[in-house]
Amino acid sequence: MPQREVDEMVTGLQTRLLTELEPVVEANLERHLGVAKPWAPHDYVPWSRGRDFAFLGGEDWKPEDSPLDPIAQAALVVNLLTEDNLPSYHREIATRFGRDGAWGTWVGQWTAEEGRHSIALRDYLVVTRGVDPANLEAMRMAHTVAGYDSGDKTPLEALAYVSFQELATRISHRNTGKASGCPIADQLLARVALDENLHMVFYRNLMAAAFDIEPDAAMQAICKEIVGFAMPGMGMEGFAQNAIAIAKAGIYDLRIHHDDVLQPILRFWRVFERGDIGPEGEQARETLARFLAAVDERAKFYEEKAAMRAAARV
């Protein structure tokens, strides 16, 4: 079959899926609005700790100003800069899902809720002098100017990706709060994590419905997105180095990714139990099983290295 005809078939499938999923979007949007609790970023910021910087006659940031250790600083900066790319994320989902009907309402709701995260995190870090605000702003500019481009994902692939990514972000925020050593940061990041969890549930439920409509296409999309998964902040300056430090601190590592992100969602979708998969879907499922086994083995390797480092320190 000519590639043009293949492309037209894929486009037609994705358009039909968006249409058939519209009632599911509407139902899950109603559910989301019923359980989501509004909150104000300024309530989570210790404003009394704030003081002027040199521009207004105060003192500029010094490393000893920060109450956070280097790992907490790195994790908070990665989390914040990831949230800063919201304009790109909005474009991504608006392009994939459209701006009309229930899909469009969700895109707007999701964007508005996500916007609170960078506001609260930045205010917290600047007021408490947790990190150098001048460097933070320079990094924000560079990262936001570069933007985020997920490539040519289909709407189905985008649904699969955000299902995992929202859960990964929830866990990263929650563990960062716990590791920060600051009760206020812990409380703030726990609140942000609640938003991320509700967003994950929304996308996870839509993907479950898509599975019932087009099981083979859904299985292929899930396999592709898991095998090629990368966090949206990977393009930021110093991401690889910070990711290693964050993993070694147990905030987000390969074991967490495998056990606490991939596996729970795959179980929810009954990926390895479904009997409605055709030959193409079965091939994708087998590829996925092999990949997950490799991830598990790699996680064990890192765990053994960590145990050896810990033993050497005793």
From TrEMBL:
Keywords: Fatty acid biosynthesis, Fatty acid metabolism, Iron, Lipid biosynthesis, Lipid metabolism, Metal-binding, Oxidoreductase. CDD domains: Acyl_ACP_Desat. GO terms for molecular function: metal ion binding; stearoyl-[ACP] desaturase activity. Homodimer. Belongs to the fatty acid desaturase type 2 family. PANTHER family: ACYL- ACYL-CARRIER-PROTEIN DESATURASE-RELATED, STEAROYL-[ACYL-CARRIER-PROTEIN] 9-DESATURASE 7, CHLOROPLASTIC. This is Putative acyl-[acyl-carrier-protein] desaturase desA1.
